[in-house]
Specification:
Elements: E1 2-6, E2 9-13, E3 19-24, E4 29-31, E5 38-46, E6 51-54, E7 59-61, E8 66-71, E9 74-78, E10 85-88, E11 93-98, E12 106-110, E13 112-117, E14 121-122, E15 129-133, E16 136-140, E17 144-147, E18 153-156, E19 159-163, E20 166-170, E21 175-179, E22 182-184, E23 199-203, E24 208-212, E25 215-217, E26 224-226, H1 248-253, E27 255-256, E28 289-292, E29 302-304, E30 307-311, E31 323-325, H2 326-330, E32 334-337, E33 347-349, E34 352-356, E35 368-370, E36 375-379, E37 389-393, H3 404-415, H4 421-426, E38 431-434, E39 440-444, E40 451-453, H5 457-467, E41 469-471, H6 473-480, E42 492-495, E43 501-505, E44 512-515, H7 518-527, E45 530-532, H8 534-537
Parallel strand pairs: 3-5, 4-6, 5-7, 5-8, 6-9, 7-10, 8-11, 9-12, 10-13, 11-14, 12-15, 13-16, 15-18, 16-19, 17-20, 18-21, 19-22, 20-23, 21-24, 22-25, 23-26, 26-27, 38-45, 41-42
Antiparallel strand pairs: 1-2, 2-3, 28-30, 28-45, 29-31, 32-34, 33-35, 36-37, 38-39, 39-40, 42-43, 43-44
Helix pairs in contact: 5-7
Length: 546
C-alpha cells in the first residue's frame, strides 16, 4: 500500500489498484490513467487558483452520498472520442458543487461519460461557468443550476439520456449556448407536470441564451420553460430545434411561457422547427439485442421479465419481448427420443430423453406407433412452419433424411437479406436467440461471422466439436482462474490433454463455461444468449457443420 498526503489531500493507492482520494488539493495536480480508477471517499476540494487535470480513460467513482467535487478553482477533464473519462456518482452523489463567491470556478468537460448521480452542477446560488461538450450524461436525478455565470457557457454536442436538465439565470452581456444536444426521454421533477428536459430561464439585462439545433426525443411534456422573474426573461433564440414532430400544437405543449402564465414576461420564439435532427447533433441507436432476466411467476396467465442489458451500447427502444402468456414458456416444441422398443401386440413405444424448452410439459410428442415391415421414422422437432417432417425408409432403400434442424437452416438461408458485416462483427462469438421465433438459438462463429443453429443438444455438440479450438491444459486452467484474453472471446476451447473437455468463452465477461454433455452444452449456450429480432438475425450469414 502506498500512502501520501498532499496538503490536506488524501491519496491512497491500494493493492487492488484502486486509488482513494478526498480532501483539499492545494496545488495543481493530474489524475493519471495509470492510477485509475479513482474512488472518492471524501469530497475532493479544488481551491481558487488550483487546477485539477484528469487524463483520458480515467474512471472516477463516488459510492457514498455527498459531493464528488467542491469547485472553487478549475477542473479540466478532456477525454477523446475513443478514450472517454468516466464519472460515476453511485446513484446518490452530486458531481460538482460551486462554493466560490469570486466567480473563478470553471468546469471544462469534453468526451466524458457522467452517469448515475444527482446534479451535474450544483452551486447554492454561487456563480461559476462551464464548458460541456461531446459528452454523455445518463441517469442524473436532479436539475443543474447555472447561476449568473461570470463568463460565457457552452453546452454543445452532448447526449442527455434519462437525465434532468438546467435551470439558468443570467445577466449582463453573458451568452449561454445550448446547441446540438440530444435530449432523450427524461424523468419528472418532483410532482411537477413537466419533464426534465425543461430549461427554466431567468435572463436579464442584455444576456443571451441561444438554444438551437437540439433534438428532443420521446418527450411530450414541457421542455422549455420561462421562469416568472425580473428582466427580459426570454430566450434570444429557441429556433431550429427538432422536437420529434412537426405538429405545432404538440410542440407548443412542450413550451411554458407568457401564454401559460401571466407572471412570465415574454413568449418563447421557437419557429421554424427542424423536420429531422441536425446533422451535427448526436443521435441514439435503436436496440436490436437484449439480455433478459428469467421469466417471472405466472400471474393471471401472464409472465414478465426485465432487460439486463441491451446492444448496441446506450441504445434505446426496439421491440424486446417482456411479457408472454404463461403457456408460451413451458409448452414443449421439440423432443429427443429413445430408440423404438420391441414390438408388442402390434405396437412399439419409446420415451422422451430431452424436451425443449427445458422443463416444459405438454406438446404433441410421438411415443407409440404400429409395427410395420417398413420402418416409418418420424422426427417431430417442430420447424418454423410448425409442421412435422416425416421420411419413410424401407429395408432396401438408402435416402437422405432431412432433419428438422436442416429444415430450419435451409429456411433461414432462404430468408437472408443483405449481409450486414458491421452487425455480424458486433455479435461475433455470441449466442443469439430469436425473440420473435420461439427463442430459436444461433451461435455466431468468430472466425467467419456466420451463425450456426442450436436447435437441439446434438446441434450444440456438433458445433462444439467441429468449431472448437484446441488448447493446452495448463494454459486453459490459468485463464479459468482469471479471465480469458479478448482474442479468445466467443471461441469454444477444447482441452487437448483432458479428453477434449470443452469451454465456451462468453464475450460479455470473458469467462469460461464448461460444456459437459450435449444437453449441458445446449443449456449453457442458450442461457447465455442475447435476444435478437428476425429482421436483424437475417442480416447474418448461415453456416453449417459437417
Amino acid at each position: 500500500m502506498i500512502f501520501g498526503i498532499i496538503g490536506c489531500f488524501t491519496l491512497i493507492k491500494q493493492a487492488d489498484a484502486r486509488t482513494e482520494v478526498g480532501g483539499i488539493i492545494d496545488s495543481n495536480a493530474t489524475w493519471t490513467l495509470s492510477n485509475s480508477p479513482y474512488e472518492v471517499i471524501d469530497t475532493v476540494q479544488i481551491p481558487a487558483g488550483v487546477t485539477l487535470t484528469i487524463e483520458p480513460g480515467v474512471t472516477v467513482a463516488m459510492p457514498s452520498r455527498g459531493n464528488m467535487f467542491a469547485l472553487n478553482g478549475t477542473l479540466y477533464a478532456h477525454g477523446t472520442s475513443n478514450n472517454k473519462i468516466t464519472l460515476d456518482g453511485g446513484n446518490n452523489s452530486d458531481f460538482f458543487n460551486v462554493y466560490n463567491l469570486n466567480h473563478n470556478a470553471f468546469l471544462d468537460l469534453e468526451y466524458c461519460e457522467v452517469k448515475n448521480g444527482l446534479s451535474l452542477w450544483s452551486n447554492d446560488n454561487r456563480s461559476g461557468y462551464l464548458n460541456l461538450q461531446y459528452s454523455e450524461l445518463s441517469n442524473l436525478g436532479k436539475e443543474s443550476v447555472i447561476w449568473f455565470p461570470p463568463q460565457n457557457v457552452n453546452i454543445k454536442h452532448n447526449k442527455f439520456i434519462d437525465s434532468y436538465g438546467f435551470e439558468i439565470h443570467s445577466d449582463k452581456n453573458i451568452k449561454i449556448y445550448i446547441e446540438n444536444n440530444l435530449f432523450y426521454k427524461g424523468h419528472p421533477i418532483g410532482n411537477a407536470d413537466y419533464w426534465n428536459y425543461f430549461m427554466g430561464v431567468d435572463s436579464r439585462d442584455t444576456s443571451e441564451i441561444i438554444i438551437k439545433n437540439n433534438s428532443y426525443i420521446n418527450n411530450t411534456n414541457i421542455v422549455l420553460k420561462l421562469l416568472p422573474a425580473a428582466g427580459n426573461n426570454t430566450f434570444s433564440s429557441a429556433t431550429n430545434n427538432y422536437w420529434g414532430t412537426e405538429d405545432i400544437s404538440i410542440i407548443k405543449s412542450m413550451i411554458y411561457d407568457k401564454e401559460d402564465d401571466i407572471t412570465v414576461e415574454n413568449i418563447v420564439n421557437y419557429l421554424p422547427v427542424l423536420a429531422e435532427p441536425h446533422l451535427d447533433t448526436p443521435t441514439i441507436s435503436t436496440c436490436n439485442l437484449w439480455v433478459y432476466s428469467n421469466w417471472g411467476k405466472c400471474i393471471n396467465g401472464k409472465q414478465t421479465r426485465i432487460i439486463i442489458s441491451s446492444s448496441p451500447d446506450n441504445c434505446v427502444g426496439g421491440n424486446p419481448i417482456l411479457n408472454q402468456d404463461c403457456a408460451a414458456q413451458y409448452l414443449c416444441t421439440s423432443w429427443t427420443y429413445s430408440h423404438w422398443g420391441a414390438c408388442s401386440n402390434g405396437q412399439q413405444t419409446r420415451t422422451i430423453t430431452f424436451a425443449q424448452p427445458s422443463g416444459c410439459p405438454g406438446g404433441s410428442p410421438i411415443l407409440n406407433q404400429s409395427c410395420q415391415n417398413e420402418t416409418k421414422q418420424k422426427n417431430t422437432n417442430t420447424a418454423n412452419s410448425g409442421q412435422e417432417i416425416e421420411t419413410t425408409v424401407t429395408s432396401d432403400q438408402k435416402i437422405e433424411i432431412k432433419s428438422p434442424s436442416q429444415s430450419v437452416i435451409l429456411e433461414e438461408k432462404s430468408l437472408i437479406t443483405k449481409i450486414d458485416n458491421a452487425l455480424s462483427k458486433r455479435v461475433s462469438g455470441n449466442i443469439l436467440l430469436q425473440v420473435e421465433n420461439k427463442g430459436e438459438g444461433w451461435y455466431v462463429y468468430p472466425d467467419n461471422k456466420k451463425k450456426y443453429y442450436l436447435g437441439r443438444p446434438a446441434d450444440a455438440f456438433s458445433i462444439m466439436r467441429n468449431l472448437g479450438l484446441g488448447i493446452k491444459h495448463n494454459e486453459l486452467t490459468g485463464y479459468l482462474a482469471t479471465k480469458f484474453p479478448s482474442r479468445l472471446s466467443g471461441k469454444i476451447l477444447l482441452d487437448v490433454e483432458k479428453k477434449g473437455e470443452a469451454y465456451y468463452i462468453n464475450p460479455n465477461d470473458l469467462r469460461g463455461y464448461y460444456l459437459n454433455k450435449p444437453t449441458d452444452a445446449f443449456r449453457i449456450m442458450r442461457e447465455l444468449g442475447l435476444g435478437i429480432t428476425n429482421d436483424d438475425i437475417r442480416k447474418i450469414d448461415v453456416g453449417e457443420t459437417e
